[in-house]
Amino acid sequence: MVLRIPITASLLLMGLLAAGLAQSPSPALAPRGFWGLPENMTVVEGATVRLQCGVHAPGSAVQWAKDGLLLGPNPRIPGFPRYRLEGDPAKGEFHLRIDACDLSDDAEYECQVGRSETGPELVSPRVLLSVLGKGEAPQGLAVWFPALPPQLPSPKPQPLLLRPGVHAAISSETQSSALHTPPGAGLSPVSLTVPPKALELAPEAGSTVTWVAGQEYEVSCVSGEAKPAPDIIFLQSGQTVSDISTTVNEGSQEKLFTTEAIARVTPQSSDNGQLLVCEGSSPALDVPIQVSLTMNILCPPVIEWPGLDEGHVRAGQNLELLCMARGGNPPATLQWLKNGEPMSTAWGTEHAQAVARSLLVMVVRPEDHGVRLSCEAHNSVSTATQERGVTLQVTFPPSAITILGSPSQSENKNMTLSCITKSSRPRVLLRWWLGWRQLQPTEETVMDVRREPGYGLKPPLCQGLHGGHISMSNLTFLARREDNGLMLTCEAFSEAFTKETFKKSLTLNVKYPAEKLWIEGPPKGQQLRAGTRVRLVCLAIGGNPDPSLTWYKDSRTVSEPRQPQEPRRVQLGSLEKSGSTFSRELVLVAGPSDNLAKFTCKAGQLSATTQLVVQFPPTNLTILANASELRPGDSLNLTCVSISSNPPVNLSWDKEGERLEDVAARPRTAPFKGSSAARTVLLRLSSRDHGHRVTCRAHSARLRETVSASYRVSVLYPPEFLGEQVLVVTAVEQGEALLPVSVSANPAPEAFNWTFRGYRLSPAGGPRHRILSGGALQLWNVTRADGGLYQLHCQNSEGKAEALVRLDVHYAPTIRTLQDPTEVNVGGSVDIVCTVDANPVLPEMFSWERLGEEEEDQSLDDAEQVSKGSTGRLRFRHATLDQAGAYQCVVDNGVAPPARGLVRLVVRFAPQVEHPTPLTKVAAAGDSTSSATLHCRARGVPNIVFTWTKNGVPLDLQDPRYTEHTYHQGVVHSSLLTIANVSAAQDYALFTCTATNSLGLDHTNIQLVSISRPDPPLGLKVVSVSPYSVGLEWKPGFDGGLPQKFQVRYEALGTPGFFYVDVLPPTATTFTLMGLQPSTRYRIWLLASNALGESGLDSKGSQTIITTPGLDQPSGEPDDQPPTEQPEGPSKLPLLPVLFAVGGLLLLSNASCVGGYLWQRRLRRLARGTSEKTEAGSEEDRVRNEYEESQWTGDRDTRSSTVSTTDVEPYYHSMKDFSRQLPPTLEEESYVRGFTGLDVENMAFAGHLYDEVERLYPPPGAWGPLYDEVQMVRRFSCPTGNLYGSNSSFACQGPGDPHWSEVKYEDPRRIYDQVARDLAPMEPDSLPFELRGHLV
């Protein structure tokens, strides 16, 4: 009994067990031979395997052979990187290890031992190594192995080694193995299998194939690669297919095979929807693998007929026949046929039962008798159409009954009628009824025919319709008046139609005449006005048929007009009946033809007549002419004829309202029994008579009516241009122009020909013109070249005419000449001439504009505007400089756009050098290291040439120390003379700048001086005043070559003491003085100061007197007040300012007694002989530099003056960049930090500042006490406390104020701080030579 174990056992465990079995110890000194042999093994692809080889052959070479290929004794086995020998050769271990096995390793192996001295060669039995691909491990692998010896220990996990006689189950997923040794197991060969991966079916597996039942088809099934080749069978609807051919092919790898099986299948209808299965089996598979496809078997249908068998139906019956077909695939297609012709193709299908149904619904008609109805069923695999049918037998009554003969007859005469039926099946019988009385027929006939005959009494000539029967009955009887209106009926009946009755009836009409006839209308002889509505009624009594009552007018039948658009002058009423009385109305509008006409009404042989009398105007007023073609000068004879009127009329003539003389003509016969009239008029014609109307009027006095007729005169004459013909046409350039034509001619002109400058314009038109139907010439995109005379030629059959039309093209003005610039000498006269090309040229089309930013600059009141023709002039007499500038000539003649031309008027004038007041000064240090720039500016046209002289001697500009730069901008010209290395000995002089052009010359003097104190400000004035403040404005004076600042000094007249306020920012020229009292008179001074001192107070332009208004007075502009005026009356000093000043002096004296004593002594000496109030020079010198602030910046090479081509007042030149470098002197001392409140940080002195240094220097230390005392002296007092109030930034602060100590002064250059203001004024000789301001 063999035990089969699942292959899920581990390969590793099998290897361990097999290796243990193979390793049995060899006894010592064993004979030459194998003590361990290789065995058949099966491994999974990618695993490692070891084939055992143990020998007792010392000194012999051992190697392995693979399929007969010797691998060599080298343990590394060259050429096989995955192969190597393992074990201890000393122990005889030569095991073959193979890593990462693949199918190429599936082979036979043997271990070979070479020949040696101890014995011959040895060869082990061949063993088979089977390699299973991953995913291809068999579901079961049976191998027999012998039992394990009990004494062997359990080996470590090794590749699987299989020994015959052991049953192993191998799993490729877990790579584990389990060995089972059944009892009594014997040896058997190893069975190695690889299952197939899949089966491939053609047609494709899983698909549905469509086959026809009974036909043979081939199906192929191919297995995947396997070992051994699998077996394949086919199952059709669960039954094995016997007709199979199988082929085994080699696989892509060695030892693998594929199987291809082809089955021949003949499907039947029962196989529809069933599976055709391909099943592959292999020893490696526990369960066979299958693939399948679904069979869709096509087969013909079978008809089931549950319908009629005999086909007896009745006409009008609703017949329903059902046709059903079963078993068809695809489902059957059904259709009904009538005598072989399709009549219905609608059917339904039930796929589940494979049933197709078609229901035929029809209404049976007589013509369906003998018709065969059949149902056909077929599908796509039907070889023949299946058909079932029935023939109809139709019973039908006659479709109609006809009575032949007239139902109308005069009384007491015989009437003959015939009754005939349509075909019927079966036949019918006929009988007659008059009212309720049955009449006996004179003859009865039954015709058995195939086709229905005509309505005549003749027998049919051909076979006829539906196979039915026709019945006929004839009747003759006497017509009586009492039978009139009775119903005569023919009735058809049969046993087959017991429930139906078929009848045909008609009404008898027995004729007899009327009894009486008369007319009702207007009385006889009454006169009716034409247009009067007249009503005539004809009446009759009795008669059958009803009397027709026909109206006649003069023996002609009266009828209404046939055309609906004609006026309905006659309305003929219909016959009306009231009882036995009949009437018919005739309404007409009386007309001329009704005058004395006879109106007659007839009814059979009876008639009645009446006559009308109608008054009417002329029925037709006709004008007759004696000629058809008339020309100027011909005579025209016109005759007016009134055809007929009642009563007679009077005729008259007029032409366009003008009465004409006429004569009577011979009268004619008048229709309608009226009167006629005729009159003639004679006219002599001209062309002006063409188109005039000549009117004839016929007037009836009795009717108070006038009838008119007119004759339009047509005179043939050549073209004549009318008085309204336009001779001049105006157009705008680039616009359109229409040259109209006003011409009269008869006949109309045949052609209009236009000629321009000798060239004829094409009548067909051109790119820019066309000739309209009336002859007018239309132009577009007109240009000025199109202007001129256009000649028009008109012609007809009577002659021709010509006219000239001028086209005046207006175009926008274009300036042709405008001289720019136009020049004139000042005081001279000149015209700016503007010439244009324009049309039209208007007297007022020229205008001039002056271009300027200000409105006053645009006035032209001082110029004269003159225009003549296409030239406009702007005339200037006595030209002035103010008139120079840009002017614009504007020309507007009404055609947009206006033309504009710009021209500049240049007024030439002699140079005008700007002469500042006072004399221009330039300050510079005369130390031969500084430079100075002299700026000379002048105005003049043409350009100016500048020359310079020094002290009257022409300046040599070739000297490298002198550099001149000239600038020109419009009428302003500038010359900048730069003097390098200014020397006091050579350059402190009077420089003269002379500006010259062709009209003259002018000059100015510029004095080059050393730096000095500033000049007093100029033009101090009050610009606003309020009770507590005053607004001031001034012009700065010469700054002495150094930055200057301003200080306001003021006093209240009558109050002792002065007040000082600094102007901030220092360069401002306006200032508002605050803290004043209302209704108080003040004297105000303005001081200028720089680093060298202050300006004087003696200048009238730097002081003024002002009185502040009271609180009840309005603030505003101050009244004009004299700049200097002494207050009247004694001075009254307020107590508080005096006490404040005394207290301040005491504090200062306490600071330095000795310094104060020396300082006061010197001040008293300098102020001797001066008045404190009127001559404040010394006081000014003492306080002039109190708020001085130095702002010198820059380096020593910077220019001393700024050049600007736009500055109009370069009068004063600063020396901001002046920097004097002198060696230190003995008077140099260090000063106490915190001295006054000066802004020392902005001072840029490179050396000593020579502030009033005397020629004789005092001994060392002499200036120290003096300057120590000066820092405590303040020449201002605050008698009222804070000068501006607590919130003012200009609060009055004393030496004890804590804010003074906050400023830290750095003095690395040991500058003499500004103490010269406390010194007495010095003579010019007290300054060093380089700083003296005198001319050298």
TrEMBL record:
Annotated localization: Cell membrane
TM ranges: 1135-1159
GO terms, molecular function: cell adhesion molecule binding
Keyword Phosphoprotein belongs to the record: yes
GO biological processes: cell-cell adhesion; muscle organ development
Coiled-coil residue windows: none
Residue span, Ig-like domain: 25-124, 300-391, 398-507, 513-613, 617-708, 813-894, 911-1012
Chain ranges of the Fibronectin type-III domain: 1016-1110
Biased composition (Basic and acidic residues): 1170-1187
Region (Disordered): 1097-1132, 1169-1208
Membrane topology: Single-pass type I membrane protein
Major location category of this protein: membrane
Keywords carried by this UniProt record: Cell adhesion, Cell membrane, Developmental protein, Disulfide bond, Glycoprotein, Immunoglobulin domain, Membrane, Myogenesis, Phosphoprotein, Repeat, Signal, Transmembrane, Transmembrane helix
InterPro entries assigned to the protein according to its UniProt record, in alphabetical order: CD80_C2-set, Cell_adhesion_signaling, FN3_dom, FN3_sf, Ig-like_dom, Ig-like_dom_sf, Ig-like_fold, Ig_sub
Entry superkingdom: Eukaryota
Leader sequence segment: 1-22
One GO CC term, this protein: plasma membrane
Functional description taken from the UniProt entry: Seems to play a role in the development or function of the kidney glomerular filtration barrier. Regulates glomerular vascular permeability. May anchor the podocyte slit diaphragm to the actin cytoskeleton. Plays a role in skeletal muscle formation through regulation of myoblast fusion.
Family: Belongs to the immunoglobulin superfamily.
The protein's name in its UniProt record: Nephrin
Native source species: Galemys pyrenaicus
Organism taxonomic ancestry: Eukaryota, Metazoa, Chordata, Craniata, Vertebrata
